[in-house]
C-alpha cells in the first residue's frame, strides 16, 4: 500500500516557528523589520533590483492554446526554454475556477482566530500556516497559506461550520479536473521528446490513473505597505512533476531566466500557469527546466493563487527516461521516489537537485 502524500510530508516535518504568530496583515502600516528583505536574506532578491534588459520588456512565458494542432511541440519548447507556460482551452470550466477563487478568498477572509482553528500542526502538512519553505529564510514572507492533502472535510468543518460540504465538493471537483489535465500535459510534453507510453509504463494512460497523487496549496498575499522590500513567497522550484497554478487577476508571480532575470507572468483571465517541477526535470534527463519562481506583493491589491502540486505515488521511482540518455553517458540523475526527494529538499532546499546528480559539473 503506497504511502499517501500526507505521510510523505509527515515523515519530514519542517519546523515553522512562526506558524502560530501570523500577524494581522491589515493592521500594519509599516513593514516590520522581520518582513523587510535585503539581498543578504536571499541572493536572488538582488536580481530583482537590476533593471530588466530593454529587449526583455515584453518577454514572458509562452501562451499555448491546447486546441492548437501543434500544442505538443509548443509545450515541449516551453518546457525546455522556460520550464513554464500558460494555457488556454484547458477544459476546466470557468465556473470551477471562479468557485475555487471564491473559496480561497472566503477562507483567508475569515478572522485569524477562526483560521487558527485549522492551523497546520507541528508535524502535519494540511491546514493553515506560513509557507513551507519559511524555515530556509531569516525573514518572513508576506503571505499566508492553506495546504490540502486528502480530504479537507475536518479542517473545513472548523472553518465553515455551515458551508463546509459545499466547499469540499468544489475542492473534489477541482482536483479531479486538475489530475486529468496534469496527465494530459505531461504526455503532450513527453511526446514532443519522442517518449511514448512504452518508455514510461508506470505513467501509462491505460494503467489505472492511481499512480499519481496531489496536494492543493492555497496562497494569499495581502496588500502590503512597502512591497519593494517584502517577499510574498521566496524563490524556489517545486518538488513536483508538474504544478498547475491558478492566479487571480493580480500580478505577482515571477519566473527566473539566467538571461532575462525575473520575469513577471501576467494574469490572463481564465487561463492556467503550468510549472515544470524538479521530478519532471529528472524524468526528462535535464531537458525540461524546473522553473525557479517566486511571488511578489503589491500595495493596492491582494493576490490569491491556487497551486495544484502533482507527482507520483511514493512507491514509484523516478529516473531519467533511458531513451533520453545518450548511450555513452550515464543518466544525469539517480532514481528517487517523491518521498526521498522531499526528504532531500527538506534538508538541502534549492540545492536538492545537485545532491542527486550522478556526476557533478566540472
Ligand atoms: O502564488 C504564486 O504565484 C506562486 C505559488 C507557488 O509557487 C507555490 O505555491 O508553490
Ligand atoms: Fe511554487
From TrEMBL:
What is a GO molecular function of this protein? gibberellin 3-beta-dioxygenase activity
Q: Which residues form the Fe2OG dioxygenase domain?
A: 208-312
Q: What lineage, starting at the top, does this entry show?
A: Eukaryota, Viridiplantae, Streptophyta, Embryophyta, Tracheophyta
Needed cofactors, names only, are: L-ascorbate
Biological process according to GO: gibberellin biosynthetic process
Q: Which EC number(s) does UniProt give? A: 1.14.11.15
Task: State the pathway, as annotated in the record.
Answer: Hormone biosynthesis; Plant hormone biosynthesis; gibberellin biosynthesis
Give the keywords, sorted.
Dioxygenase, Iron, Metal-binding, Oxidoreductase
Q: Which Gene3D superfamilies does the record associate with it? A: B-lactam Antibiotic, Isopenicillin N Synthase, Chain
Q: Which organism is it from?
A: Capsella rubella
Q: In its UniProt entry, what is this protein called? A: gibberellin 3beta-dioxygenase
Q: Which Pfam families match?
A: 2OG-FeII_Oxy (PF03171), DIOX_N (PF14226)
The record's comment on protein family reads: Belongs to the iron/ascorbate-dependent oxidoreductase family. GA3OX subfamily.
PANTHER family found in the cross-reference section: 2-OXOGLUTARATE (2OG) AND FE(II)-DEPENDENT OXYGENASE SUPERFAMILY PROTEIN-RELATED
Amino acid at each position: 500500500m503506497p504511502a499517501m502524500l500526507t505521510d510523505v510530508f509527515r515523515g519530514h516535518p519542517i519546523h515553522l516557528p512562526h506558524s502560530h504568530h501570523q500577524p494581522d496583515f491589515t493592521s500594519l502600516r509599516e513593514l516590520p523589520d522581520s518582513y523587510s528583505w535585503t539581498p543578504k536574506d536571499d541572493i536572488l532578491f538582488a536580481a530583482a533590483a537590476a533593471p530588466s534588459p530593454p529587449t526583455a520588456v515584453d518577454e514572458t512565458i509562452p501562451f499555448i492554446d491546447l486546441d492548437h494542432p501543434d500544442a505538443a511541440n509548443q509545450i515541449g519548447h516551453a518546457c525546455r526554454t522556460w520550464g513554464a507556460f500558460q494555457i488556454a482551452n484547458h477544459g476546466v470550466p470557468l465556473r470551477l475556477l471562479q468557485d475555487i477563487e471564491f473559496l480561497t478568498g472566503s477562507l483567508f477572509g475569515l478572522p485569524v482566530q477562526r483560521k487558527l482553528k485549522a492551523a497546520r500542526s507541528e508535524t502535519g502538512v494540511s491546514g493553515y500556516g506560513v509557507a513551507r519553505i519559511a524555515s530556509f529564510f531569516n525573514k518572513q514572507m508576506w503571505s499566508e497559506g492553506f495546504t490540502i492533502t486528502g480530504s479537507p472535510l475536518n479542517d473545513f468543518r472548523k472553518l465553515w461550520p455551515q458551508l463546509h460540504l459545499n466547499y469540499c465538493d468544489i475542492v473534489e471537483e477541482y482536483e479531479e479536473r486538475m489530475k486529468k489535465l496534469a496527465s494530459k500535459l505531461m504526455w503532450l510534453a513527453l511526446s514532443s521528446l519522442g517518449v511514448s507510453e512504452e518508455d514510461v509504463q508506470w505513467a501509462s494512460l491505460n494503467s489505472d490513473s492511481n499512480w499519481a497523487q496531489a496536494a492543493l496549496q492555497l496562497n494569499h498575499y495581502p496588500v502590503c505597505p512597502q512591497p519593494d522590500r517584502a517577499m510574498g513567497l521566496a524563490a524556489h522550484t517545486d518538488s513536483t512533476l508538474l504544478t498547475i497554478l491558478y492566479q487571480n487577476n493580480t500580478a505577482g508571480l515571477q519566473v527566473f531566466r539566467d538571461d532575462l532575470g525575473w520575469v513577471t507572468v501576467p494574469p490572463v483571465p481564465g487561463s492556467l500557469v503550468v510549472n515544470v517541477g524538479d521530478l519532471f526535470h529528472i524524468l526528462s534527463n535535464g531537458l525540461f527546466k524546473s522553473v525557479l519562481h517566486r511571488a511578489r506583493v503589491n500595495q493596492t491589491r491582494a493576490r490569491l493563487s491556487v497551486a495544484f502540486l502533482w507527482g507520483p505515488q511514493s512507491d514509484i521511482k523516478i529516473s531519467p527516461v533511458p531513451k533520453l540518455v545518450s548511450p555513452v553517458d550515464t543518466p544525469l540523475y539517480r532514481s528517487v521516489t517523491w518521498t526521498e526527494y522531499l526528504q532531500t529538499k527538506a534538508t538541502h532546499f534549492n540545492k536538492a537537485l545537485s545532491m542527486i546528480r550522478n556526476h557533478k559539473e566540472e
